[in-house]
Amino acid sequence: MKSDNGLYKLIYEYFETRLLYGYYACGDSLPSIARIGDMFRMAPGTVRSALALLEKKGYIRIDARKTARVIYEAPRVSFRKNAALYFVPRRNGIMDLAESGKLLFEPLWEEGLRRMDQKTWDRFCRPPEEPFQGAVSMPVSFYIMVLSNLNNRLILDLYWETIRYIRFPYLDNKADAETEVWNAGELSQEEVISALRNRFEVSYGKAASELFAFMDEAENEFSLKQVKQIPFCWDVFRSRPQRRYSLASRIIREIIHGSYPAGSYLPSLPHMADRYGVGMNTIRRALDILEDLGMTRSYHGKGTIVCTEPEKIEAAGREIREGIELYQESLQLLALTISQVLLYTLRAEGEEVQKRLGESFSWYLQEGKGYLCFEICITFIVEKCPLALVRECYQKIRELLPWGYPFSLLRMKGKSLHSVYAGCTGQAVEYLKNGRPEEFADSWRRIVETEESQFRAFIRDSFPVLDPHGAMERQGPGAAASRTNKRN
Predict the structure, then answer these.
(1) How far is Cα 257 from Cα 393, in angstroms, rounded to an integer?
(2) Which residues are paired to 265 by β-bridges?
(3) Are 389 and 100 in contact (CB under 8 A)?
(4) What is the pLDDT of residue 200?
């Protein structure tokens, strides 16, 4: 089950949702493995992993050479109660997504459509040769067919986690497959994108309206009016040891902001474990990451010193390769969404807040800290955007951005980071000061696009362990495995 990076869970949750909410009845057959593979465009092994988990949970029975049969049985009222207990506590999050999705997902799937090669595009626009009941709904198919063109696991992960949270697209059917969009062979690419946008909004709006009507009834029926709301939470490190990655990122941020100045020693391991609320082993693993990044150096009997700048980065280790990839992917996600997200937030906050933001940027530029303007911009969105999903997404991106700092130091060796970023951020600030928020927001799109392009070029030229697309090559034991244990 581990070989498919957890994609089997998408299939598992799709069918689990339909089973719990009464789409399938006891004795029904699921589609064949081949058909499910076609639905989700996933390999047979991934489908078998999902079915095996469904069987383990007591939902289905798998018989050799036959389609899986549903054995889950519950009274009709249980299906309704299952749905109520899941959806009512997520009412606010589902309402939020209606607006957040326009800012986060529309630009992503539009870019995914534009990147399709002609063969895939023709297949996408052609109606299915054999429509059938239970085909994957439009929001789910977009995950599989469109967003995958971006070659970005972080974006796929965000979309998948969102669909998993709201779940009701799992209950939709692709019954309108014969509509104009799927017979769009004569339309231009932009016309198809426009038609898809309209169809997506209509289908989501209709499904959400029906769901809210159900929740209104269910709140009274099952006494759920005072139920605590469950917000969306994006667990980026779902399949990774989260704490050491997050802790390494946090310490880098503290180094950037001067909490641990270059040349100073970090606190002792017990003190850091107490400060960050983690175990000693997590501290050691996080420090291993920082040392591979060239941010610190440890000396037996003395402690760990913060380096002025990295002389070398050990990119062969799995943790560093993961960090590089996540940083590149977060830059792409930012480049595709930051303009509209930033403009939305600025308009929501009004002119007075825009003025204070401009003053904050100006202060950092005057202090010679132009490199911090990235974080100021992201933090503004995290703290001020009215949309919860956007705040959650950008909060996680903010945690990933420090991974680029050591590479920026290495890339700009001999140059001041402030001098590199002062020009572009200074121009953006002028737009804001002059009451031109649209141009301010668009300038940040260009800034992030430039950073993404230059970072990818630097990684490609400087680290042969990475392929031209940023995908990690398989390596042998890496620096972490051969590192001499220099700590107490």
Answers:
(1) 22
(2) 305
(3) yes
(4) 76
